[in-house]
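Now read these lines:
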Amino acid sequence: MTLDAATVASCVDGKPFDEVTLRERIELLAASELGGRAPGSSGDLTARTLIAEQFRCLGLTPAGDGDGFDQAFDTARERTANVVGYIAGTDSTDVILIGAHHDHLGAHHPGANDNASGIVALLAIAQAIRQQPKAPPRTIAFVAFGAEEQGMVGSKFFAAHAPAALPTDHIVYDINLDMVGSYASRGAVYVMGTFPKLAARKLLDGIAKAHRRLDMGLGGRGERSDHEPFCALGIPYVFFWTPDDRCYHAPCDTAANVDVRHLAEIAKIATELVSGLANSDVDLAAARSSLGCSGVVARRGATAGTPRD
């Protein structure tokens, strides 16, 4: 399976938040031919190839092994990879990392919401940023993580073996997109890690006013997703997640059941946040050092950035 000419064209000059395009991309990743995208499977390889083709089409700089986008690693049983690309900043060594996991459970589990929805939102953000008149001051990295369902294996590997172009010491924010296509389940999107003193919270308070029709639950600590290895390093995060009361880890997690209308708006909000962080005058590196991922000032004698929420 590969991208057809129309899909490739849409990644260059199409509308990033077009609902038809978003659904088509989810259908590609959740197609029966991919067999649920279990790590190490042929569907896993196909999904990674599709993502890398989109990264290449968007002109992202590869940051995987060699001159490619794949950052390979081994799980307990299989070999898979993260898919890594970035847009270089113009005058800062800071990095804003956008992540979403590309894997799922395998046979009979399409994984449309979990987490094809996060991948297509990540691609929409990359497309929208690339269509801006100029590159932002800070580097923006886009990472499709592998083997999240096996215990965040891919994000842990990245955090321990970050590419030379994207060292963890320079990552000042992590934006995690996991299951962002089931807003209709509870009529809410939870935006976690957004503690009051952190830069993202201040931006999101303003962004929320322009998206009043969307119920955004700000604050709270997110768990069991790919932001955790970064939080452990003291990197602040924003975790976008919509609960799925009906089809979580179930065969009914299909493209037809994804709430694409609200997914598009969540992707817009995330794009506004990413753009705001990438262009912010706030010293995000200093904020990371003093506040970590919890927004709590490090106590004397404590390791700067250690989360205590």
DSSP finds ten helices and nine strands in the chain.
